[in-house]
Design goal:
155 residues, mainly alpha
Length: 155
C-alpha cells in the first residue's frame, strides 16, 4: 500500500523476484492508500480470498498506514477478517512510530531484500498460495471500457 505508483511497482517487483527464487506462487494486490486497501480486503473476502500480509506506507491520502492498521485490528477483533500481519514501510523515523503501533515491524524506505527476509523468511519453501490473476469487482462502466479496449486490441 503506497500512494506513489513507482514505489508500489518497485516493491511488487522486489517481492515477486524474492518469491520467484523460492519457487513460490503468491497473490500481490497493490493499493493506493488505506481506503483502497480496505476496499480490496472487502471485495476479496466476498470471493473467498483472504490476505496474510500487508506492507504499507504511513503518509497517504485518505487513510494513512497507522489508521489502516488500527481498522484491520478492529475488524480482526470483531471476527470480520482473520489476522493480517502488518508491516510499515516509511520515510520517517521508525523510532517515533514504533512505540505505539499495531505493526509487527517498521522499516525505513526503500524496501530491501533484508526486509523481505525479516517478513517472509519463516515461510516454508513448499508453502504455496494460488495466484489470482482476476480482477476485483469494479463498476460496470470500467468493465465495459476494458472489454471495448480488449476488442480493439484483438482487431
Amino acid at each position: 500500500v503506497d500512494d506513489e505508483k513507482l514505489i508500489r511497482q518497485s516493491n511488487i517487483n522486489l517481492i515477486k523476484k524474492y518469491f520467484h527464487k523460492k519457487e513460490v506462487n503468491l497473490l500481490i494486490c497493490e493499493c493506493e492508500d488505506g481506503f483502497d486497501c480496505l476496499d480490496i480486503i472487502y471485495k476479496s473476502k466476498k470471493i473467498g480470498l483472504e490476505f496474510n500480509y500487508i506492507i504499507t506506507d504511513q503518509t497517504m491520502n485518505y487513510i494513512c498506514g497507522s489508521v489502516l492498521a488500527e481498522i484491520i485490528l478492529l475488524l480482526k477483533a470483531k471476527g470480520v477478517i482473520k489476522e493480517i500481519n502488518m508491516y510499515l514501510l516509511t520515510s520517517y523515523s521508525t523510532k517515533i512510530i514504533k512505540n505505539e503501533s499495531n505493526f509487527i515491524d517498521i522499516f525505513s524506505k526503500p524496501l530491501a531484500k533484508r526486509h523481505l527476509e525479516s517478513i517472509f523468511g519463516h515461510l516454508d519453501e513448499e508453502e504455496e498460495v494460488e495466484e489470482y490473476e482476476g480482477e476485483f469487482e469494479e463498476d460496470e462502466e470500467n468493465e465495459n471500457e476494458d472489454e471495448n479496449e480488449n476488442k480493439n486490441k484483438e482487431m
